[in-house]
Amino acid sequence: MKFPIYLDNHSTTPMDPRVLESMLPYFTEKFGNAASRNHAFGWDAEEGVEAARKQIAKLIHADAKEIVFTSGATESNNLALKGVIEMYHEKGDHIITSSTEHRAVLDTAKALEAKRGVKVTYLPVDKFGMVNPEDVRNAITDKTILISVMFANNEIGTINPVKAIGKIAKEKGILLHCDATQGVGKVPIDVQDMGIDLMSFSAHKIYGPKGVGALYVRKKNPRVRIAAQMDGGGHERGMRSGTLPVPLIVGFGKACELCEQEMAADAARLSVMRDRLHATITKALEDVYLNGHPTERLPHNLNISFAYVEGESLLMGCKEIALSSGSACTSATLEPSYVLRALGVGAELAHSSIRFGLGRFTLDEEVDYAGKRIIETVTKLREMSPLYEMAKEGIDLKSVQWAAH
Ligand SMILES: *Cc1c(COP(=O)(O)O)cnc(C)c1O
Predict the structure, then answer these.
(1) pLDDT for residue 334
(2) Ligand 1 pocket: which of 81, 149, 182, 199 to mutate (most atoms <8 Å of CB)?
């Protein structure tokens, strides 16, 4: 077993060696600009890009012409929200989204509110982190032009009922954007079947390179239009100017092809490992709570709160394992995760949460080792915790008068 162990595959994934292999010629002999129309260097590069576009489209059941390359899902989310608002502002000025979206959607929505007077409804989620399609329906007004709901959450792995939301969007003639960065390549996604009009995703979350992503933009039923947010050479059918990063795009295509072939097997293997890890932890420790949906969740995600233990201290106690805690340094202070808070998880338990993100290259022995070390560390930290001691003595911690208050 090699250390450190990587269990943070929601943040990014290691690149698959087969992806790297596919990219290499495009750094050297096939270095051309895909927009160079009058020589072989350009044609070679363009051929690489168009093959990748097909591989990417196939994974999500789209047409290659519906794929717009970007620098990643952050840019795709910006382009979708800002591009739709700018293009359709005469139709309305209202967006519906959810409170557990990635920052790239939430901050874009906030910028649109502040700078363009757009009205945004941030839907609540249930205790498992799921958006209720009926809440979407009830939030629709005659000014609504876009619904943006994520496919699966990056912290808790909960998968939203996107198909049901898509049906409502279609019924009302409103566009549906989906940030599917965590879902694409991990679980089957079909933009036709699910009624998705715009969809963001990124190569580096699916064993591809960093710095490239895509926005799916529906071409028919309806034909979606977006205003470009970057002025320039008119690349990507005028929706996103800039010389294409050919090697990254070729790698992105290969990553999608591999996901298409191996997604089912990866998901089956990882969910078994994940469930075993969960069972081991709950068997050994009391006062542990699963965050997110028990069944409607990504196969490689596990998010657990360990009561009476600070997530950050837990991570410090097992530095040889790369994990993520539910506390985010969003400001000078350590804020508990807004996603967990949106599920109604208290600040204490939110601070005590750990996200396990398994991946294609995760080994059984790594997961077993992580489980053992987490159990050891939680036990040790609890032994040192006065709060845990008080709770064990039957003192109701809520009734305690804290000196600091
Ligand atoms: C990682 C992630 C993003 C941002 O993607 P980048 O390609 O890193 O910009 C957006 N949304 C979700 C849900 C993510 O997990």
Answers:
(1) 76
(2) 182
